[in-house]
Each structure stands twice: as C-alpha cells, then as structure tokens.
Amino acid sequence: MTQSSIVKRLTEPHAGPVPFSVEFFPPRDEQAEERLWRTVRIFERMNPAFVSMTYGAGGTTRDRTLRITGQLARETTLLPVAHLTAVGHSIEELRSMAGGYADQGITNILALRGDPPGDPLGDWVKHPEGLEYAEQLVRLLQDLGDFNIGVASFPEGHHRAPDLDHDTKYLVSKLRAGAQYSITQMFFDVEHFLRLRDRVNAADPEQGAKPLIPGIMPITSLASVRRMVELSGSVLPADVEKRLSDAAGDGPDENRESVRAVGIDLATEMAQRLIDEGVPCLHFCSLNFAKATSEVLERLGMNSIAA
Ligand SMILES: Cc1cc2nc3c(=O)[nH]c(=O)nc-3n(C[C@H](O)[C@H](O)[C@H](O)COP(=O)(O)OP(=O)(O)OC[C@H]3O[C@@H](n4cnc5c(N)ncnc54)[C@H](O)[C@@H]3O)c2cc1C
Prior knowledge:
By secondary structure, the chain is α/β, with parallel strands linked by helices. The protein is built from twelve helices and eight strands.
C-alpha cells in the first residue's frame, strides 16, 4: 500500500494553528531504543503530521533505520519518512535501500547527499559507482517507483555552497527534479528562514509554492548545541548565544535547568513567529525525547494531550 504523501498530509485537519512533525534518529542500543519507543508513543497521541528517521551517512545505521522506520509504519498510527543519504553508496545499494523501504510500504523518502562519515566537514569523496548530489538521488527514486520525495534546505546556505545564489540555484534544481517539499536544517534566526523562502520564490515561484518546512530544535544544553551548530557549518546568532550563556552561568558545569528554560523560550518564540509568517508545518528535532518539544507545543496551544 502506498503511504499518504507529506504534502497531502499537511492539508489534513490538525490540532492548533499549523501541523507539526518530529525527527528521530536510530538508537544505538537497547536502552536507547526503549526510550525512543516511549517517546514515539507520547508523540503518537499528539497526532503529528509525520515523523522522520535519520540515516547514518555511509550506511552506518542502515539496518536500524530500515527496521525502525518499518516498525513505525506497521506498529503505530504515525506516517514515517525515511531519510536516505547517497554518500558512500553505489547506485545499486541505493536502489536496494529504496526497494527495502518500498517492500515495507514506506514511500516517503527524504533524499539527501549526506556528509563524509566521521568528519561532516571533511572532504567529500564520491563513491566510484555512486552519486554526487541529492538531485541525482531524487531522480533515481523517481525512476524507481512511486516515491514521495522531500529534500534538505539550508536557511544560512549549505556550508559547501560558495554563496547563497549557488545554494538557492541547486535547491530549486532539486525541487524541479521532483522533490515535493523541503525541510530546513535547524536554525536560530527566523530572518534566515524568511530570506531563504524569498530567494526560492524569486528564483522560481512554482517551486517556491512547495512546502518549505522549518527545522526547530528546542535547546536543552549549550555545550551540545554549540557542537551541533559547528558540525553543520553554521553559527549561533550573537543574541541567542548571549541568552544561553547568561543562563549557563560561569561555573565549570552549565546550569542545565536555566539553559533548558531559555531553550524552550527561544523555540517557542521562533515557532510563534514562523506560524505568524504562514509556514506549512513545524518540524521538531526531538533528539528522541518528547518533553522539550511537547512543552513548546503546549505553549503554542498545539499539544493536544495537554489540552
Ligand atoms: C532536514 C535535514 C535532514 C538531514 N538528515 C540527514 C540524515 O538523515 N543523515 C545524514 O547523514 N545527513 C543528514 N542531513 C545532512 C545533509 O546530508 C548534509 O547537510 C549534506 O551536506 C547536504 O545534503 P543535501 O542533500 O542538501 O546535498 P545537495 O543538495 O547535494 O547539496 C550539497 C552541496 O552541493 C551543492 N550542489 C548541489 N547540486 C549541485 C550541482 N548540480 N552542481 C554543483 N553544486 C551542487 C549544494 O549547493 C551544496 O553546497 C540532513 C540535513 C537536513 C537539512
């Protein structure tokens, strides 16, 4: 059976002013997997438009991503999107992964190039029998069958793009190649998102009409967010960094409770502004925990369990 497409799902009735979605990653061990399933069950009651499961670059989490995404499709009421990255794979392997998803009834795929495993900012080396860019993966998936395809976008520009025009040009190419929507990298300055939306609209209004879904991460640790931002080649805006560092304090260990409170405030403020700006969905990077995201949703009046 073919899954509902994400674009269709975003138009279906939902609680609150806008639908939301949640990103998970494949757990490393049994204990982490138990926690993931507890988180999944909490979100299930909140009726997200979709959930997505990341894929370790180069296939490092291939079996777990495939297995857990399959379980999400079979054993929950959630609509899962499987991430798939081209890096380190031959075209044959990518075909086989896509076939593995289709066999489990998963037809929503987020098509990505991926970063070099080990060092995301390291040199990109194409697999000799593989693909160079996500756009080629979009085309491959389209040739293979009935997939509903999404792609990644970058409010601050992708770290390998020489400038924002280049970045916009190739995002538009991925959309023209058949991607139906894009999800952005997490960001902390709404202006960057709005300018990306303007650039895509100006470059090609038809592609600009496709859902551009903002990625939001409620910050719960300053040290972790600094590391994540660094690995993705972006920066924390100065005012955000200041609010978080003030909350963290000067001690050797950051004041986690204060940082968390500021992180929830920041995510709520950003999400509200994005709702006011008419975004089609809010995509939360949950880090496999439900609490921070549900608090933000509750403050936005979008937590159907709390209500
Ligand atoms: C929402 C989201 C989810 C993600 N999930 C995962 C995940 O599950 N696993 C994982 O490993 N990584 C994931 N990533 C990270 C992503 O794989 C990396 O950021 C990667 O570096 C870029 O992937 P892409 O699909 O945007 O690449 P591409 O669209 O191929 O772009 C890569 C670079 O090449 C440029 N470019 C594109 N096409 C061309 C062309 N034809 N000619 C010249 N230049 C071109 C682009 O401007 C960009 O600089 C995710 C990112 C996002 C935003």
